[in-house]
Amino acid sequence: ISAVPEEAYVVLEVMAIAGRDIEASQLVLMCDADKASDVLVWIDDATSAGVIEPNPSNTSQYRFTQALFSEAIHSCMSLASRTAMHANIGEVLESHFGNDAAAHSAELARHFFEARALIGSEKAIEYSMLAGDAARKASALDQATRHLQNALDAKADYDDERADIEVQLAQAISGTEKRDLAADHFRSGFD
Fold this sequence. Notes:
mainly alpha; 3-stranded antiparallel β-sheet; 3 strands
């Protein structure tokens, strides 16, 4: 990592927070640089240093050559930096996905959930609910439970929306072996 020029670290930080293969065009937007050409040079610098590489199945995407690089960069970032970066990445991806954002709700939910201290909980709740519903429909009940629990954690007010989240969470949990927990959420949803 030390072979990467300091100005190129923003690319590595974005990639560490994004947590997946990233399109070069998305990196340009997420890095918030003055010029796209700067980001492309930084990508080349990090590639030349052997820290990132093009995805062999899609060469317009980049990924870390080793998970350890991502973990090291992530751990060196402050909580405030990570929160701000999640907010920026969430906004960029939401805009990029446009009308198809719901199809990417799990990814958006993760970024907006991590950014809620900075931007509020509205988008975290919205995308966590969408991701939970999609996972439940796909019978991925553990994923549905995780997303709906995040929506519940992000929802501070006790209102009809929170009750709806409790009921949906109970429905997802009831398909697992945690029936007592499901009953608790059903009761909370109807109180």
